[in-house]
Amino acid sequence: MERRTFIAGAAAVGAAAVVGGTALAAAAEPSETAATAGHVRGATAITKVFGDGQKLIAVAVEYDRDIDGSALSTSTFAVTGRTVTKVYANSVAALAERSRDGRFVVVELSPDDDSAALWVTQQGGGGTSTGSPSPSPSPSSSDSGGSGGAPGAGGPKVGDSTPGGTIVAATASVVQKDTVRTTHGARYAATGTTLTTSAVVNLVVDDFQQFTFDDPATGQTLKYNLFIPKDYDPRKRYPLVLFMHDASVVNVATEGPLVQGLGAVCWASAEDQAKHESFVLAPEYGSVVIDDDYAPSTLFDATANLVRAVTERYSIDEDRRYTTGQSMGAMMSLGLNIRYPDLFAAAFVVAGQWPAEQVAPLADKKLWIVVSQDDDKAYAGENAITGAIEDAGTQVATAVWDGQSAAAQFAADVRNLKAQKAPVNYASFLTGTTVSSGSGTSAHMGTWHIAYTIPGIRDWIMRQSR
């Protein structure tokens, strides 16, 4: 039923070799510089996923001997088109809080650089926005921001397979600008040689595996990403989180749901796994599954069947399966809970909607809903949903949050909402606080740039049981 899918090609994030190699000009360099170049073994790009997508945030240069970290500074290296923020030695090609002597020199880069973004979404006007999507004329909750306005006004429709974004290959060019010293006192002189990264480390993303699922019930084939807990023990039972992406990610690449934002990878981070060991499942949809007509394609039911198949294959607790998604994925989370009320224990719904007259089954569900007040359609839609739930006698805890809050304030906001002890928690971001001036991001898409950065919500979800 399942088969492993291997991704190849320069644009596939996580490929072992992305582009190029070391460009050496030894004949034109002094002998000391040529000798320095000979001590360099290669360079690795390091990426990290943020709320608005994956970014290239460091380069690790490997030498033939351990490097003395105390002699390094931000002026020791330059990376083309990037701002160097920190330089230190390490024993592996990885980020570290402090320098430790080793063969790698890690050159950290500002994630705010224009060229940092590796997830690029299309603007409604036909241009591109690096790292952050543009606003749509009339945002739909199934709208990607890259596919125009609401259905019927140029927005995504069920079956549409035009990608709303692209993945840029992670590559960088680095030059050693100052002397590097080894721990044994050797001096590797500055060089004008440009070194191009030839490998990539994708933080958290590389911890997922890619598979395909052939669903005999619907005839559909789903590509998906699966995070398996590091110390998986089939004698234990684990929770599972299903993340479903928005319409901008359709038909991009299997890894698309992992790099477009934090919706999948946040649950698989070392911090979250230390608190809540769990499986994380992130399908990649080849086409739009649902639009504002609320008549989903068969990929909708195939998703439910995929959850069941993964549950059967691994030791997963059927009483601790959770669903989350943004925009189209939020709509699917709502719809799956309505059609399959016994499938999930709780849902984290980010910027979604569903017809209020159909949401009666949600009155028995545990939900955490987040939406922006200036996301006209999704905010109105969530108000209608929570109103219907309250009419059915279910308590709904509500709060208005500032989307620009620091982590400590969000932690307090979560505690205050949880204190109401309601099965449904509904937080709306204050108008104007999910986007920065001039960013080109819509409030709709800005919602999930923030929502998945709040660990307290995930903690609440993971404590729920069916």
Brief sketch in words of this structure:
The protein is an alpha/beta fold and 466 residues long. It has helices at 31-39, 256-259, 270-275, 299-313, 328-339, 376-391, 407-418, 443-451, 455-462, and strands at 2-4, 40-50, 53-67, 77-79, 84-90, 102-109, 119-122, 128-130, 165-167, 173-176, 180-181, 187-188, 194-196, 199-202, 208-214, 221-227, 238-244, 279-284, 316-326, 346-350, 367-372, 396-401, 424-429.
Keywords:
disordered N terminus, 29% strand, alpha/beta, 466 residues, Rossmann fold, Immunoglobulin-like, 20% helix, elongated
Structural class: alpha/beta
The best one-word shape is elongated
How many angstroms separate the termini?
A: 27 Å
Radius of gyration: 23 Å
What's the multimeric state? single chain
Helical fraction equals 10-25%
Count of distinct structural domains: 2
Please report the number of helical segments: 9
Which superfamily, in CATH terms, is the homologous superfamily of the largest domain?
Answer: Alpha/Beta hydrolase fold, catalytic domain
Q: What is the second-level CATH architecture of the largest domain?
A: 3-Layer(aba) Sandwich
**CATH top-level class of the largest domain:** Alpha Beta
Estimated share of beta-strand residues: 25-35%
Average pLDDT metric = 87
Q: Order of strands in the sheet with the most strands?
A: 1-15-16-18-17-19-20-21-23-22
Spans with pLDDT under 50 lasting ≥5 residues? 1-34, 123-154
Q: What summary fits the major beta sheet? A: 10 strands, mixed
CATH structural fold name of the largest domain: Rossmann fold
Would you count the extended β strands for me? 23
